[in-house]
Amino acid sequence: MIKNSIRQLFRTKIKTLLFLVLVALCALLLCIGCNLNYLCRENLKRFEEAFVTMATVEQKPLSVSPKGMWDAELWDYRYRNVPEYGETMSLSVLDMENVEYISGPEKRPYYMAYLPDYKMLDDDEGISNSIVVIASPVEDCIPDHAVEMEVIEVIDGAYTYNTPNLYFCDHYNKNPEMMYADTNYIMSVVNTSPHNWDPEKPFEKPFEWIPNGGPSSGQTYADGTPIENRLPEISVEAMDEEFYEKGHDKIWENYGEEVHMFFGSAPVTATDDLNLIMSFYNGSTYIESGRAFEQEDYENGNQVCLLSYAFARRNGIKVGDTINLGLRYANYASSASYLWGNLSLTAQGELFQPFYESDYTVVGIYASLPSDTADWGYDVAYNEIFIPKNSIKNSDENNIGGFGRLSPYNTAFRIPNGAIDEFMKEWEKQGVENLEIHFYDKGYTKLEAGLKQMERMAFIMVAAGVIMAVLVMVFFNHLMITRQKRRTAIERSLGASKGESAGSILSGILLTAALGCIAGSIAGQALTGRFAGTMNEEHLFDTTFSAGMVYADSQEEVETVTEGKLTVTLFAGTSLFIFAIVLSGITTMGNLKEEPLKLLSTRAEE
């Protein structure tokens, strides 16, 4: 009976060949569509694990106005635009019920930790020569140019000053006051090049010393409200009777010690997620040895830290060692690299004492890639140390030495990948003005859009394959089974059972369908790989990590799926063949229900 069925196929070669080709095309569409859907979902899952979407927050200025600063060398003002921000916004403006944050929002502070037992500079490194000195003019003078002064005493500073005299210029003061030879002056100064300095004759003129800060306090309450202070907040002060009556001698002494401590300190940045720190996020800073912080470190507040490679090398520190960090005061104004150089006393003019001290285990040592440009604010600071925010067990509310606006350098958050549009819809409902949010996702949004587009193409191909399969199977079942009723009647009249007659009629169409499914599935598997390879060449998948950037060896591409999965191909091809069996079986059962004599009495349909 099966041989008869196969011979029947060869009698209708064109019809059989057309059925074979159409079934193969259906299988091809189904296999490619199902495999592309699998490929999109699998790659999207891998991108989800590899990519990070973070955002920085910036409070925009309400206005910008020019501000002039006198330049004694030019004998004129230098003007620069100074932004006015108005009231500092609270981080709570980012609290939104329908927004899911993976980490943050955080306004990230850095703390000053005095480390007198550690070497802060290499032997061949220099620093700005900031010192606090008591000096007296050689003669009465107005310091609108370099005037010679006798150094009476060096209170403190970044280094030991041994020269008996210095040349002082009140460089940024248009109308400096008269200085008298019989009066001592206490000054915070830093050296710089002389007026009209000639680089070809660098030592023709002595270097000048100009004002550099002075006793000041940036101490605030926890909400950023400044605490009223009695500090002079000037760089040069005459040591007369009023000076001692106001107690400024003690304040200047503390300031000198603060200058000394500052150059023996390291900034300690506390964070809830290293991915919120731009230099780690973009890969310019990475873990050279050891490990980065883990989720457990953030959640449990483990006493762990990351040190810079230079600091660790200079002091012989390796992963697993401990370092004692005494956190003295917090700066919420900006990142350590942007405001490096701001010193602060308490509002009473005293030194900040550590509000929290603990031993931290070094779990990782980081390094930074060399760069021709400095990205102030986003770069890591010199000797900067990183710790988990929750590792600080005491509140810093009484030790805030600086507070400022929401800055992109220290204010950030992280949201799920692909959630930027949803976030912005919720944000726009808040109606908050003068706050700008910058998103960074390493191209995830574009990747997701490409994958979503491919997923839609996959759905169209599957739908086309299903519709085509139904039409092809129904049409050829009609040609090869329904219109074969007379043949069925003859076979049954000759003594064939219903089962033998069914086998005769089904074996040919199912054999053809099986060959078509096999051929289409093989072609679909091969073409899926080529299609995915073409998409890869177009950079839909050829994209670098962002979440793994914190490691030195993670500058790799995301390993994407570019080949169809065999089980998906088998499922698509087998499903089509099962559909052919079911539909053909139902059609054949319809033929077998009619009586053979009744069928023979009708006009031949072939």
Short précis:
The protein is built from 13 helices and 20 strands. The chain is α+β, with helices and mostly antiparallel strands.
Explain the overall architecture.
The structure is a single chain. The protein has 606 residues and is α+β, with helices and mostly antiparallel strands. It has three domains: 2-51 and 445-600, no CATH class; 53-122 and 263-441, no CATH class; 130-260, OB fold (Dihydrolipoamide Acetyltransferase, E2P) (Beta Barrel), CATH 2.40.50. 35% of the residues lie in helices and 22% in strands. Strands 5, 12, 13, 14, 15, 16, 17 and 18 form an eight-stranded mixed beta sheet that branches. Strands 6-7-8-10-9 form a five-stranded mixed beta barrel. Strands 4-19-1-20 form a four-stranded antiparallel beta sheet, with no helix packed on it. 38% of the residues are buried.
